Amino acid sequence: MTLFAFLIAPTIFIYLGLYTFQNVPVTFALFYGWLLLVPLLNKPKSLKKLMDKRSLLNITVGVGLGVGSIVLIMTGGALLPHELFDSSQIEFLLKDWKFSGEYTGLLVCVLIIVNPFLEELYWRGFILLKLDKVKQKVMISSLFYSLYHFLVLLPMFKASYTAIFFCAVFLAGIVWGRMVVHFRTLWGSILSHSLADIGIMMIYFFYISSKM
Fold it and tell me: For this UniProt entry, which segments traverse the membrane (predicted)?
């Protein structure tokens, strides 16, 4: 399989799940199934080393960045709730995507536990190793990491902010990528990513779920 296929496949699965099947559980099955199976089937030894190695400094940096992300996300949501998004539009969209009802709690747990682990394993682990000899490997991996987030953001937020959020995701990908390159371990980026996702879920429960 070509490197481009590995880079673009997650975006294709997100598109199929949200726009073709219009179903979040199906999207999760397609997307996370790919993120899990590809690293497992390829089994690069260097990837195992990234999971085995732990660094207290790396974890501290990851937690610090994650807490900072929560503060920024919650501050933005508190100061600009109406400017950032139309809660009624998001409510309709999430119901249409089956992100509501009795399984909402399970889906949220997937987003704050499974999502950061598998995304970091794939993008900052498997993909960075595939791009090891490429000079701009962190930039390239971050760009394709951001690409499918654009598909999620586009129908949910007001158009003027979608590009800003895309850039924020791209920047986060660069920071997490640099962390992995520097510390040679994934655990700090996983923790930081998980905390950032918790911040996003807090926005969901404070400003959207309470009105559904």
Answer: 12-35, 56-80, 100-118, 138-157, 163-181, 186-207
